[in-house]
Amino acid sequence: MMRRSLSETRPLRDPRDSPQKPTGWSRRLRYYYYRLSRLQGTPDAIARGVASGVFAGFFPWFGFQIIIAVFLATAVRGSKIAAAASTWVSNPLTYVPIFAFNFKIGQLLSGWHDFSVRDIDWLSSDLGRFGALFFWTLMLGCAIAGSIAALCSYCLSFWLVRRLPRTRRVRRRRTGDRK
């Protein structure tokens, strides 16, 4: 009896042609959700790492955000990988809106209302003219907005990381997979 190869018994099909394949943002979000859930560590440690990264990402220290996030994650015993990845909450597409929002928060809390965010030319040397007052107003806003975003990201990532193993167990029971 002659054995046939696997390609002769079943037609070849491209797995990318699946009808249930999510596209666009939903696929990207699902990818990051699975990457987050497969990190090594307890859900609490991973969530602390995510919160550290988000907090560091709200500060305008480009190039040092990952270093600061890893340092903070070490201090709170969080996942350093999750912290480094979470700093990308601020990226080239979100820098200006995040920092303008942080500056506005700093203005509201410090009472410094000499000018509007719209009056600043963010690409010129106008920022140096305002000096220390601008810097401390921005840092105050970054600290407050970063703390709130870190708390929200901690709660969300803790829930997401804890949720996935439970859904895997339920799915395995249904399909009979004992992996």
Features:
single chain, 179 residues, mainly alpha, 7 helices, 65% helix, elongated
Overall SS class: mainly alpha
The coarse overall form would be elongated
Number of helices: 7
Helix fraction by DSSP (H/I, runs of at least 4) = 55-70%
End-to-end Cα distance:
34 Å
Output the helix-strand order. Answer: HHHHHHH
What is the mean predicted local confidence, pLDDT? Answer: 78
Please provide the count of β strands: 0
Low-confidence region ranges: none
How can the largest sheet be summarized? none
Radius of gyration: 23 Å
Beta strand %? under 5%
Short structural summary:
It contains 7 helices and no strands. It is mostly helical and 179 residues long. The chain is elongated, with a radius of gyration of 23 Å.
Q: How is the secondary structure organized here?
A:
Layout: H1 6-9, H2 24-37, H3 43-57, H4 65-75, H5 80-86, H6 95-110, H7 126-175
3D structure, described in words:
The chain is mainly alpha-helical. The protein contains seven helices and no strands. It is elongated and about 65 Å long.
